[in-house]
Amino acid sequence: MKKLAFFLILFFLPAFLLPAYAGAANAGEAELHALRGVWVSTVYNLDYPSRTGLSQTELMQEADAVIADCTALGLNAVFLQVRPCADSLFPSEVFPWSSCLSGVQGQAPDGGFDPLAYFIRQCHANGLELHCWINPYRVTRRSAESKEAALAQLAPEHPARKAPELTVWHTDGCLYFDPGLPEAQALILEGICEILDNYEIDGIHFDDYFYPGGDFDDTDTYSRYGSGYASPEDFRRASVTALIRAVHDCIGTSGKEISFGISPFGIWANDTSMPAGSATVGSQSYFDHYADSRAWVQDGLVDYIAPQLYWAVGNREGEFKTLLAWWKDCVADTGVRLYIGLAAYRLTDAQPDSDWYGITNLKEQLSLMAEYGVDGALFFRYSSICDHGPLRSLLQSCFSAGDSSTALWLETLPALYSTEITLELHGYADPTYPLYVNNVSYPLEAADGSFALYLPLSMGGNTYWLSNGKEEICLTVYRQLTAANRRRDIADSLPDINNSSPYTIGCFGPADAVICAFTNAGAARLKDDGSGFYTTDHGPDYIGHVLYTCEKNGVLTVDISLGSKS
Hints:
Blueprint: H1 4-11, E1 35-40, H2 56-72, E2 77-83, H3 99-102, H4 115-125, E3 129-134, H5 147-152, H6 159-162, E4 167-169, E5 175-177, H7 182-198, E6 203-206, H8 219-225, H9 232-252, E7 259-262, H10 285-288, H11 293-298, E8 304-305, H12 320-331, E9 337-342, H13 360-372, E10 376-379, H14 382-386, H15 389-399, E11 408-410, E12 417-418, E13 422-429, E14 435-437, E15 440-442, E16 450-456, E17 460-468, E18 471-479, E19 488-490, E20 506-508, E21 514-519, E22 522-525, E23 527-528, E24 533-535, E25 546-551
Helix pairs in contact: 1-7, 2-4, 7-9, 12-13
């Protein structure tokens, strides 16, 4: 390896480097979302290309579509995954062509097309940055029953196949370069320096894949190189940091204005494990991935840090605002920029009972980021945005030039219960942006944005989510068979606050009925206790009125009685 000696020197140097961007603006002066980027995944053909075996023309057309979309959304940076699994989306002398292009690892795409060169040219022509997203240690992603079987998946010229001793076959059935081996680190660094030498990119980017777990089989590596460390865990963290330091130094000596940044798992450590950690209870990258991202920031080894804060506001495991404040404090006075990785993918299939249903949670996260003065946002991932019309409109209204104010309102709110088969809604929306109902676009034909919607009502609960630019309205309407069979309010008095015994929620009903109770705390399916009295298993407390609905053969026929005290 032509850079092996260079890397070995870096590997054992003290970890002291000045911050790359000293003198950055104070938080209060930071431009809102100065960087607005999106991850474009190539692994499994998730985002680009859409499938293997595309012609050169098709590969160019799909790249053009990605760039045009990003421009229309007001984004200004593409993070293209150019090395998903120790392979390449460009002609390389170090790693073989990625199988996501031709379908066969090591086989060039049609016409020898260079996707990276094309993305760089087209992104720069449209005012977008192009960052090379690299997974440094991952070699395979298809589980195999043995190391030999995993190696057999690789192209004959793959460096891991030629030097299998550089890899570890992990318990997930996949191969990884051993981060503790200087020879493996040198190979990874050579592949990165090759990009720096041959392409005018704007950045090198790592995501959160470091050590895949604590059961990584590196005992021999530790015995050879770990004598100066108190534990295998400390050795692993130092090994990852050594590569990051080497990449930082390689970029620094390239003479090019290139950013180097990492998007680690959002929790460095919980404060129950490390005093400097965050008030969270989730997985910890310091212990689980051996990624000391806090040290990388404090030692100035990265130009930016982009933690993946993929939890909702209010989530117990990794509360978004808590982590946002922790990371803001982490970068304070370091000159390292703070971008936030946002979970656009969580909106794609979210159901009405999810924190991620609609755009409310993500909109609140963007607002909090503006409040804390972060330097940018990174969305995972491209197709998740494309497949979610309301999210597209939100980003356009937030990031595109011009007036970003939007308005959405209904002339009257519908009744909670209906016997009709159609719900009729009249209102106004901003005609600059599409009107969506449950992620389906409804054209606004009137110049003033007025609309009339006729939506189908199914039996039971119907949730409708209207979205227009930054605004949204969520409402639920229950359809019943007849007016006489609607769900009925029971004017229960509240329990005596001095009485510690809760009320049992329950009512009498016929055998084999479906009876549900609805309270401010949620819904509960009741069960027959054997006497015809339907109740919950545990008799929960409730606030306010209880609503009961009872159905048998599609008809509500039961008298409803108050619950008794337990």
